[in-house]
User: What shape does this take?
Amino acid sequence: MTAKNTFNISEERRRILLVEDDLVGQESMKATLEDRYEVLIAETGEEALEIIRKQRETLSIVLLDLLLPGISGIDVLGRIKKDPEYSRLPVIVMTSDNEAEVECLTLGAVDFIPKPYPASKVIRARIRRTIELYEDRETLRLTEKDQLTGLYNREFFYHYVAQLDLYHQGTPADAIVFDINHFHTYNDRYGRKRGDEILKCIADKAMSYVNESGGIVCRSGADTFMMYCKHNDDHKALLTRLSACLNDGTDGDNPVRLRMGIYANVDKTTDIERRFDCAKMAADSVRDRLTAPIGFFDNSMREAEILREQLIDDFKTAIREKQFVVFYQPKFDIRKDVPVLSSAEALVRWYHPKLGLVSPAAFIPLFENNGLIEELDHYVWAQTASQIKDWKERINISLPVSVNVSRINLYDPELTDRLLNITKENGIKTENLLLEITESAYTDKTDQIITTVKDLRKHGFIIEMDDFGCGYSSMSMLIDMPIDALKLDIQFIRSAFKEQKDTRLLDAMIKLAASFEVPTIAEGVETAEQYAELKALGCNVIQGYYFSRPLPADEFEKLMIESPKKEDK
Ligand code: C2E
Ligand code: CA
Ligand code: CA
Assistant: This one.
């Protein structure tokens, strides 16, 4: 894992600082080097340090005579090597004093050129070799380290964790991930400079901790850090220590908070990256928790993780073997005295050969994260369209059915064509395949999504905004947004009908929806009381256990045949 970046040294003229007071020496060295290098000259140690201070970044090497007027060459060398900013600049010492060699090497000189000078060829070769070595090392350093904080980057970090394991096999270790809650809002509010300061400060604290107690640390993302260290039970002390510099009063009433996930006593047979995934999972489990923001990776998380992996592994087979089955839940129009079946929602279920019936809550968020949802949605749309066709042909009922459209599909440039193909292949009208798009999807790339939604509507698709009220779409965006129905988020019903019934918010949401002149759909309606209340508040359509749970196609078919439908009025 070496970042071998071979420099072609003849490509560009490197800059050499020659520190030499003797004119003859200056001239002879210049003559040797000037055709290949740009040579800067300093005649005293003070001058040399001044040039280094101003031009550090452009210098490739320093050739330092030990016998100088004023501060000595040894002193100059010592000062260069002590200063962290300059210490990596290679210095070759020139001297006739063999005795000085050891001292200079101890101080950090890389090489010697004896006086009187050897043949030009020899000098050039030594200088060239030193510059090459130095530049290789520098490239490695830059790729290893994060520029802002000076910590390792992720890739090198993993490499060094492996080395630590090798040398400390019997020592119990912790994998720790920590990051800052809502760092981006913080950055927006107080500026990038302050953001950088905070990151550097955390990095310094983390560094000092691992230096003392053994371990290594890296910055693995914008505001995320990973630490691998000797096991320690007092993680609270560590968190306090890392947070120590954060709230010095500069940041008003918006204190910076770290949260931390720990996989303690790691199983060293687990892959290193996986150990940090586990710590990350633990950190995510305490997201937004203000007190005790430390999460531990435990067995339940491990099991959940194993389940997730299995679901992902099994996905392709499940599609191929049609293990995904679409259920249908009716939506009733409640504006008249008798509720009328107006449409249904297609909801997917997974009949897993080993796990049995798996609820969408277990796999939809997972597939939304890794992108598999796109393929699953296509599958559900096709199944649904073919079911609509079947009902139309077999029992002569054309009931519109809504399908869920995940956010990722909205970025698919072929979305409209895809949906049109599905409806065409099944000979159904576009207005019979309703599209539920979750409100939070609209807050992403607003313009692009408005364009997509307009295009879909132009082709006759009907759009229902799902989970309305739980995303953060702005009012102005709602005004620009062409939609055909608003589906209130299930939480509104839940919170309105807790022990302390309070329907004011629900009322406000229904009025808001009415002001956009589109029908309101309430989902999650479970009781007669809720039904009556919603009807009184002016809600138009209801979906929920009160009428029916989501049903397999054959059972839904019976319900459909028995229910009053629009045509039956
Ligand atoms: P959603 O789109 O908000 O769907 C409504 C969920 O509420 C469904 O859960 C439904 O079974 C449930 N529900 C309906 N009435 C009631 C009720 O009276 N009480 C209670 N407690 N729950 C009720 P389900 O089927 O488990 O689906 C959960 C979520 O999974 C859905 O939320 C949707 O976001 C997603 N989902 C389901 N099928 C699909 C699909 O085919 N594609 C995509 N992209 N997402 C899907
Ligand atoms: Ca839905
Ligand atoms: Ca919903």
